[in-house]
Amino acid sequence: MRLLTFKGGVHPEDKKELAGFAPIERIKPPEIVYLPLSQHTGVPSKPIIEKKDEVEVGMKIAESNGKLSVPLHSSVAGVYMGLVNYPHPLGGRKLAMKIKVDPERTEEWKSEEKEVGTLSNKDIIKIVKESGIVGMGGAAFPTFFKMQPPPDKKIADLIINGAECEPYLTADYRLMIERAEDILKGIDIIRRVINPDRVWIAIESNKMDAVERMKEVSSSYPSFNISIHKTKYPQGSEKQLVQAVKRQEVPEGGLPFDAGAYVQNIGTALAVYEAVCYSKPLYERVVTVTGSVRDPSNFLVPIGTPFDYLIEEAGGVIGTLMKVINGGPMMGIAQVYPEVPVIKGTTGILIQNREEVFSGIVGPCIRCAACIDVCPMCLMPTEINKSIETENFDKAEEMGVLSCMECGGCAYVCPSNIPLVQQFKYAKNEIMKRRK
Amino acid sequence: MASILIPVGILGGIALFFGIFLVISAEKFKVTMDERVEKLIDVLPGIDCGACGAPGCSAFAEGVTKGEYPVNGCKAGGEEVATAVAEIMGVEAEVGGEEVAVLRCLGGTDVAKRVADYNGIKTCAALHLLGGDKGCQYGCLGLNDCVEACPFDALVMGEDGLPYVIEERCTACGVCVGTCPRELFEIISKKQDIYLACRSYDDAKTVKQVCSRGCIGCSLCTRVTLGETVTMDGNLASVHWDKIDDNSILKPALEKCPTKTYIKRSELRGFKNA
User: Fold this and answer.
1) Is any Cβ of chain A less than 8 angstroms from the Cβ of B5?
2) Topology adopted by domain B35-89
3) What average pLDDT does the segment B129-144 reach?
4) Percent of chain A scored above 70 by pLDDT?
5) What does each C-alpha distance from A51 to A47, A80, A99, A408, B218 come to in angstroms?
6) What's the pLDDT tens digit per position in A182-233?
7) Is residue B137 within 8 angstroms of chain A, CB to CB?
8) Each residue of A92-150: pLDDT tens digit?
């Protein structure tokens, strides 16, 4: 069997066995949820309810604000307690809607399944927007916006991203095992809107049971292909997937549709299905809580649930808690406050204790070029780092630092432990600031 | 013997030709430079801090002769340079009051809580992007960006993780103001002794949680001071320096501030050498 892949990349331990066998479990809602207004790429939503208002599960509580923005829905039933300045999982404090939960009234979404049949593409895109759906793989880009690519770009391949290359995380894997039929219905809806020539469901080779399951179910959809990808990080990156499937690179600074492809996450496909067929807005998602916790699990959680509540639900920390990471070990962001809320783009929560957290010394670059070998974007991390250290941002830009997707492969292999990704994030921010 | 004269003659001839050529072209393509510019460059500090708005001292000198910058534009040089520049330009210099940079944060490690261990790149700019390791999202990060940027070595890092201004060296050039990612430095007149040392726009509850010397936005200072010298900008008091001639206006604020966020510059100066 030939496995699809891309150039570069690293092979970290995948650690998926920790939470991979735990079925998705619906948790009891916490006492209070915090729903940040900024959960997606673009303009934060605008609250439309008043303090002390009663809210229901799935009720729209904030309206989209601008062209690239989506509405926000309450994930629980309860009372709105007003806007608070609350820690945000992507750093700093941001405005969040505080809702006191009424556990009696907080119930599962119940609705009859509707047929997609008569809906036009415009209707579907409208439903997707009104349901607040964003990319569930982490970047949280509004899906309705992505569903309307420029008309002059012909999309030949629709790629559904089930690679989940980030170590530890198993949310998409569990969804593929447990909700395969629903996911495929969701993919079919996206296929109708995008109208591609081919549909690919990309899965890494370390999840062969998910491949089997998807193959079994997709037999009723003749146009769907399952593509098996080599287990390598960052296989699940949008541009790397396009490269692996189409053997064609996305142009520098371009988007997948510049190469005739459209990539969407497994979780997003499911959310689209639930929104279109059950009118269910995006208010809950599957989050893997893993690492040094007693019972690593996959929880179906209301958005806005604080991390520390989920850590307790997963049996608590083994040893001394050192790091709480939003996401996986490679691209995740270490949290300052363990009480930050789950947002639409939270794929997992990784807990590291004292033994696991790296505390070595940062050394000088020994010019081994390991980072150059692994960079999936074919950049020269060490050279870029050197120009950033001397504050030569023009040179860093010339060498393509803006193409860096911050996958962390270079920092992972660096024998001198240089915080390369952090340098690049800093440089990208600095370059963007100077452009303004 | 005669054979040696040939190369000597040829080389001598070439040398003569180029000599004459260079003299003629130097005369013909002469760039007339304002002689005042050279004199000005001599009196300017030559440190290229950029506080005047020009890219460097020589650019400032040129600008002054063209009237693009005021004669007292060199902030780093102060009164002395301004008079010298005015003399060269043949005008009277209006020398304004001397200014100094102050740090608007009191959140040293003993006052503001650190909430995270940080072991990434050791610069404030990089740490600021991540939200900082202090509970306060407005407070000083203490990783020396300003100390390294100061062209006059007028900043030193205190033991409590806050930079202190050595006022004898500070020329109010403003480099630190532009360097600090949290915009904590402010240039104020040396006549002003009392100032508000906080930049936090957080609400009282958040400030109380993270720092004991932060502005909680109680607005007491706006009520005890005369006129509209202090107003509220959200949860932070803002002092209007243009309306304050006499620093005693701020004295009631210094006395009444419940979190002691107003401080005296003169008292802080004693602190720095510790």
Assistant:
1) no
2) 3-methyladenine DNA Glycosylase II; Chain A, domain 3 (1.10.15)
3) 88
4) 100
5) 10, 6, 10, 42, 23
6) 999 999 999 999 999 999 999 999 999 999 999 999 988 888 999 999 999 9
7) yes
8) 888 999 999 999 988 888 888 888 878 889 999 999 999 999 999 888 999 999 999 88
Q: How would you list the strands of the sheet with A348-353, edge to edge?
A: A24-26, A297-302, A284-291, A348-353, A321-326, A333-334
Residues of B in contact with A426 (CB under 8 A): 121, 125-126, 129
Pairing mode of beta strands A198-204, A224-229: parallel
Task: State how far residue B68 is from chain A, nearest Cα, in angstroms.
Answer: 25
**A403 touches A413 (CB < 8 A):** no
Q: Are A171 and A298 in contact (CB under 8 A)?
A: yes
Q: Domain map of chain B by residue range?
A: 35-89, 99-273
CATH number for the domain formed by residue range(s) A121-278? 3.40.50.11540
Question: Would you state the structure tokens that stand for residue A299, as one six-digit string?
Answer: 């929880």
Instruction: Tell me which residues of chain A have a C-beta less than 8 Å from any C-beta of chain B.
Output: 85, 91-93, 322, 333-334, 336-337, 359, 419, 422-423, 425-426, 429-430
Task: Locate the domains of chain A by residue range.
Answer: 121-278, 370-435
Fold for domain B99-273?
Alpha-Beta Plaits (3.30.70)
- Which of A426, A429, A432 has the most B C-beta neighbours within 10 Å, making it the best mutation to test the interface with B? A426
Q: Which residues of A393-413 are buried (b: 16+ CB within 10 A; e: fewer)?
A: beebbebbbebbbbbbbbbbb
- Is A422 in Cβ contact with B121 (below 8 Å)? yes
The model's pLDDT over B51-104, given as tens digits with 9 standing for 90+, comes to 888 888 888 988 888 888 888 888 788 778 888 888 888 887 666 667 889 999
Tell the residue number behind the tokens 């440190």, with chain if given. Answer: B47
Residue in this structure with the two tokens 């020539």, named with its chain if needed: A197
Tell me the chain B residues in contact with residue A333 when contact means C-beta distances shorter than 8 Å: 130
Q: Which ranges of B68-174 does DSSP label H, i.e. alpha helix? A: 78-89, 124-129, 145-149
Mean pLDDT confidence for B38-54: 85
State whether residue B249 is helix, strand or coil. Answer: helix
Angle at A250 between CA A138 and CA A327, to 5 degrees: 15
Among the partner-chain residues B129, B131, B137, the one whose CB lies closest to the CB of A426 is B129
